[in-house]
Design brief:
The complex is a heterotrimer of chains A (324), B (283) and C (271). Chain A has 324 residues and is mainly alpha-helical. Chain A contains eleven helices and two strands. Helix content of chain A is 66%, strand content 6%. In chain A, helix 2 (41-58) runs parallel beside helix 7. Chain A starts with 20 loop residues before the first helix and ends in a 7-residue tail after the last helix. Chain C has helices at 43-50, 73-79, 96-106, 111-124, 140-153, 170-185, 198-201, 221-226, 228-233, 240-250, 258-269, and strands spanning 4-12, 18-27, 32-36, 58-63, 66-67, 80-83, 158-162, 190-195, 206-211, 214-219. In chain C, the strands form two sheets. Chain C has a six-stranded mixed β-sheet, with helices on both faces. A four-stranded antiparallel β-sheet of chain C has the order 2-1-4-5, with helices on one face. In chain C, helix 3 crosses helix 4 and helix 5 (140-153) runs parallel beside helix 6. The chains are: A mainly alpha (324), B alpha/beta (283), C alpha/beta (271). Chain C: GO terms for molecular function: ATP binding; ATP hydrolysis activity; ATPase-coupled transmembrane transporter activity. Chain C: InterPro entries: AAA+_ATPase, ABC_transporter-like_ATP-bd, ABC_transporter-like_CS, ABC_transpr_CbiO/EcfA_su, ECF_ABC_transporter_ATP-bd, EcfA_1, P-loop_NTPase. Chain C: Pfam families: ABC_tran.
Chain lengths: 324, 283, 271
Amino acid sequence: MNNITIGQYVPGDSWIYKMDPRIKIIALVLSLVVTFTISSFNHMAVLLVLTLMMILTTGIPFLKMIKGMKALLFLLTFTFVIQVFYVQSGKLLFETDMHLSFSSIGALVVLIVLYNIAKKRTKFKSTLFLAFVFMVFFLQAVLPYGKIFSYEFNLYEGGLYKTGFLLFRILIVVMLSSLLTFTTMPTDLNNGLESVLKPFKVVRFPVAELSMMLSITLRFIPTLLDETTKIMKAQASRGVEFSESKLKDKISQIISLLIPIFVISFKRAEDLANAMEARGYVIGAKRTKIDQMKLGLVDLVSVTILVLLLTFNILVNTGVIHAL
Amino acid sequence: MGIQFKEVSYFYRGIKNESFEAINQINLVIEDHEFLAICGQTGSGKTTLVQHMNALLQPSKGEVQIYEHTIPVKKRTDKIGPIRKRVGLVFQFPEYQLFEETILKDIMFGPKNFGLSDQEAEQRAREAALLCKIPEELLSKSPFRISGGQMRRVAIAGILAMKPDMLVLDEPTRGLDPKGSKEMMALFNELHDKHGITIVLISHDMDIVSRYAKRIIVMDKAKIAFDGTKETLFLDPNFESYHLARPQAYEMMTYLSESLNIPFKQVFTEEELLEYLKEVNHE
Amino acid sequence: MAKISVENLKFSYNSKDEAIKELSFSIEEGKWVCVVGHNGSGKSTLAKLLIGLLKADEGKIVIDGLEMNAENVHDIRKKVGIVFQNPDNQFVGVTVKHDIAFGLENQCVKQEKMVELVEEFSKVVGMNEYLNKEPHQLSGGQKQRVAIAGALAMNQDIMIFDEATSMLDPEGTKEITNFIVRLNKELKKTIIAITHDLEFARRADHIIVLNKGSVVLEGTPDDVFKHQDILEQTDLDIPFGLKVYQQIIKDEVLKNKKELVDKAWAYSLKK
């Protein structure tokens, strides 16, 4: 059986792997605050470069990072389009008339159909998507025949800067968050979270219990996946075709999967609760942990750097430093 | 017609993209009306092999002929669904597949998926329930309110209601007590003898295997290491490498033959042992 | 003094069926007792009662001098380890290491000591190379071994095995069965093994046969197996050798063949 790593842990041994998980979590929060307290494009660009350089030192392959961002492509494109239309500051870089005409609408319809067909047959879905978006506007620019409605498209410098700013920010946030999940094992993350949230115990927040719940969830995800596969096979052997897409059938298919999984899970919950009690687990009681978390030099350095960056940002924002 | 494996291999990929061979160049013919047992250690490829028999898995190499269907499918129009009707596969702990509101409905699930009307499906379900000795009062009850052994019978009835030509069972007696085990095997025997259904059984229990199976296949490290009868299996020179137990009657016979100096004869069941002892002692 | 004693135990899940009608028995320290019965005879209910997961309606349970009640059930659990039937449903930890440590963590054992104990007892059960493996990568037998290691690490003198091998394949069953024998013979643990496998029960010091919630037979394996008629009523399968022996001594011709009878009896005793 293979070692299914839940989340996306990538094994490695660079400095980031030696960090205490508590500090990693705190560092991520601090970095996010730093990112969101930047207001100038130039600073954001600098932060992006710094982030990229840092990632290089951790040894995580870039390809993995990029793959994670494919999911954001739609959001990014949408943002770009909105900003480009909306922001009207700075130099005017480009202008053209866009037309919603019979010819352009007709062409758009054809484009949508072609896109949907091509989508299923190509591997380069992201590139196709970008090409599609480009064509949507290109067609509107070059087909004025049978004009119904026209509008101006003005591309200003400000639009590009704003888009860049937002784009870089999203990239930084995604990369830093991915960095955490790529370099921290789910159990360590759980331990780190539990420790970091300990102060909330004062307001009766069940930190230890939530941590135990998370731990049990992590433990059972691979097992549940295996069992779901087995049940799918069993139901497939009874004639369920999981690839059929009629809605009515889909509901029946899902029920034939969900109910057995629920039944197994309830039995499991009962058995597990019995086993945990029999082994001396008492909710709310004090327990020690076999996992140890130790602070090291890396942790100290990371936090210091981030605090400095944050201070710098605050000083800039409050006008104390007139930055470049 | 039955099933034919032609040079079938199946690979699957691990996390680091390395390739694991679950079965390797399997050539096997299963005729109709056979009663066949598949034995072998955990990991020898038995489960992978039987999952090819109802096209749950498709070979990485080679070809499987299941009645009139060929896997992998050559034409896009060939549907796999009908295969599942003819070859019924029952997994280990099949009681986990139950989910309907009532036992009757659950047994009807299979036939309905294959296009039978509610009326026809119900008819089939009642017949199957009868065959599996599920009391009629139970049919309107929830499948979750009965014992584990009964749940297993309901699961098997659910497959039988599809009226398969072949029944493939993965350790059907695992987890059952001795009485439950006996009853289950008696059912399969009846299905084979009276209804002509081909039975393919994965089992570790050599007592059951030698009592019921007419043909035994031993899987070892992804290949078929032995294909023959019980009479030749236990005398096979490589028997030790299969890591199989001998039937209890066989072991006792070996002991008695040595300690009493009587000629050894292969016996596989309690009845055969006693019969032989009586024969030998009838001077 | 008996290590475990049960007196007039009664329990029912609902007011209709009585899972345990009237149970009394006692177990000496260091003995291995098998409780046998068909499914539904009350065996598993007994296991849960002994570990305080269920509360008896009537009667008392005394373990190591403590009469079980709501206050001391936690202390009793420190003395009694239990391995359940489903290897997955009792595996709490994310890895082997974490699962063996689970009981120790509950007892607030110091971190360094835990690491030592986990290392030591994982070796005893042969799982020390698997400490970082996750449960879905293990076989049923391996998971049960981890459960045993967890109980050993808690230094519990009494261990209950509730059908611990019914869901395992033959290799796993052999593994665990051998461990149970070692736990009793080498480590001198008091063992209660609940099973429907009479072949396994034969090797125990003492057998208690349950049928429909009551004790119908009790004694050493030799004593118990003499009562074939009672055993047959419980739907339990008598060990093969014994079955054949009993058929031989019933047969007109064979019962007079002294050598055969002797050898058959000798075979039936082989463990």
